[in-house]
Amino acid sequence: GFDLAADNSAGTMDVYRYWQIMNRAVPGVFDRLDAWSSHSYPNPDFAGKPTDQGRKSITGYRWEINILGSAFGLKKNLPVFITETGWPYQDSAKLKVQNSKLSDFLDQKTVTEYTRAAFDIWLADQQVQAITPFVLNYHAAPLDVFSWLDQEGKDHPHCQAIREMEKVSWWPEQINSWEIISLDLPAFLPINSQYQGKITLKNTGQSIWGEKTFSFPSLSYFADNINLPPGVKVEPGQSFKFTFNIYASEWPETAVLSWKGLEKKATISFFNPSKLNSYQDNFWQKIIALAKVWWYKKIPRTSSQDWEDSQIN
Length: 313
Description:
The protein is α/β, with parallel strands linked by helices. The protein has two domains: 15-163, no CATH class; 178-310, Immunoglobulin-like. It has helices spanning 15-25, 60-72, 92-97, 108-123, 157-163, 283-295, 304-310; strands at residues 36-39, 80-84, 128-131, 178-184, 188-190, 194-203, 215-216, 226-227, 239-247, 253-259, 262-271. The strands form four sheets. Strands 1-2-3 form a three-stranded parallel sheet, with helices on one face.
């Protein structure tokens, strides 16, 4: 996010000027964005009212989006993530021992009222997808006056007020997608046996697997669900090897394996090893049958194409 209160100085640059430089370097850069991060602080001096409007208010993101559209050709209606905002507050204990600017800040009661009013405004705005105030738990000067938790980890009054508010789910919409990298799956299994299959998936979406339950329910009683183990996180671009059990039936048959969310299907033939000796004196029949005995244990699949070529219907 950008500091909307900064001007052009030796150490800062006005955000409009910075956007001009960005757009000259990469024409149309803002239309390449999927979302907008905003630091909509209640300025000036972090003491503005929640009803204030404009660039330096808690709805500064509206000014940003409007300027990006009118001056820089933004055509998208970008979702907004307010990644920094909040009011610093007076701490009566510190005021007694520190010669600081704490007295310039609002008292805790006013901060609580303003914060609650601000959330009412943000939650009613469909463009705002998330609000992450600055800062949750921090206790080093000078930024400790923004902390929502005290040094013991307990809520300050404004934190408790927001905790008690009725809010929509904080999970933003994300693209969930994956790519099959490899599969370890037998073509044959003896009846009444088990096998641990393996499938490697690459996270090609936006979400982090493991922040919520991540599972592919089995659509066949021959195989378990494909589950991400507890505590494991798979970020976009990363891959993970899942394991699952396969259960052969009590009689010879061909099983179709599939999982909800994985569109492709695979087949495995269950055979009866005791019937191998019942084959007639056909040389090739015996060779094929014996091959099934050792082949079922492990047939490596090095790519999703191998799987598609040999296992998929």
